[in-house]
Design a protein that fits this description.
about 260 residues, lysine biosynthesis, 4-hydroxy-tetrahydrodipicolinate reductase, EC 1.17.1.8, binds NADP nicotinamide-adenine-dinucleotide phosphate
Length: about 260
């Protein structure tokens, strides 16, 4: 039996890559598209919904979401309430929102995933960074994205910092008396480590995690050159969440 999928944000850069992946996989059945701003009524025979109200009652298994941080929480909540297992790549969730959505998924006995990064290499980078941070507590994160990205820092950078802070002894980095002559020069402060966000046309999604110690340095880097890099993870997630009974945060929980 094929898995019935809805794609929210299908006109966006990630939504288009997800559309291609879902329609090319014979095990997946695209049953609806959602975008409040789309002018078309249907795409290749698949209905385009402009309002979540109209989607109510539609039979589907999985809600794939690549929309915008402002609506990601309410979309994911809606999906769970309708009985659709969410596979969410949209970034910008707070940890309170993730906790709430996880509780709702348990109450509904539905699987789901919120993944700040679906690229397998990025998931590995986060794990390697957490490993290295045990020995190298001085670390800075530089995330680099295309200049249309709406939120900063990236969800991947925040998740990387969270994983590192679970193993790193909390400490303020840099000189105790350092000052910024230009506000923001030292980046965002997460538990004493600094995150820097670069936005440039031509980039897709990239991250460096730089560790420094006495007389040595270690740099980990991952590059998504093309949005196709995320689709192996999205495909895997769609097939896994239908068997799950709670929402998880991070693709590593489904690997
Ligand atoms: P994008 O090209 O701007 O696409 C977002 C799409 O969502 C647009 O078509 C937008 O329509 C639509 N949209 C806006 N408001 C909406 C609403 N209320 N409901 C449904 N759709 C709505 O952005 P993108 O590059 O595809 O990225 C989408 C999200 O995925 C971002 O949060 C990004 O950070 C994230 N992302 C995640 C991963 C990952 O691996 N997890 C990788 C890359 C990106 P309009 O253009 O008409 O506003």
């Amino acid at each position: 039996m094929s898995i019935k999928v809805i794609i929210a944000g299908f006109k966006g850069k990630m939504g288009q890559a997800a559309y291609k992946m879902v329609t090319e996989d014979p095990d997946l059945d695209l049953v609806a598209l959602y975008d409040p701003f789309a002018p078309e009524e249907q795409v290749a025979g698949v209905q385009v919904f402009k309002s979540k109200e109209d989607l109510k009652g539609l039979t589907a298994d999985v809600w794939v979401d690549f929309t915008t941080p402002a609506v990601a929480y309410e979309n994911t909540r809606f999906a769970l309430e309708q009985g659709y297992a969410p596979v969410v790549g949209t970034t910008g969730f707070t940890s309170e929102e993730i906790t709430e959505l996880t509780e709702l998924s348990r109450a509904k006995s539905l699987g789901g995933l919120i993944a700040p990064n679906f690229a397998l290499g990025a998931v590995l980078l986060m794990q390697f960074a957490a490993q290295a941070a045990k020995y190298f507590p001085n670390v800075e994160i530089i995330e680099l994205h295309h200049d249309q990205k709406k939120d900063a820092p990236s969800g991947t950078a925040v998740k990387t910092a969270e994983l590192i802070s679970q193993v790193r002894t909390s400490q303020e980095q840099g000189a105790p008396d350092e000052t910024e002559s230009l506000a923001g020069a030292r980046g965002a402060n997460f538990d004493g480590m600094h995150i820097h966000s670069v936005r440039l046309p031509g980039l897709v999604a990239h991250q460096e995690v730089i560790f420094g110690s006495q007389g040595e340095g270690l740099t980990l880097r991952h590059d998504s050159y093309d949005r196709v890099s995320f689709m192996t993870g999205v495909n895997l997630a769609i097939k896994k969440v239908v068997e799950g009974s709670e929402l998880v945060y991070g693709l590593e929980h489904l690997l």
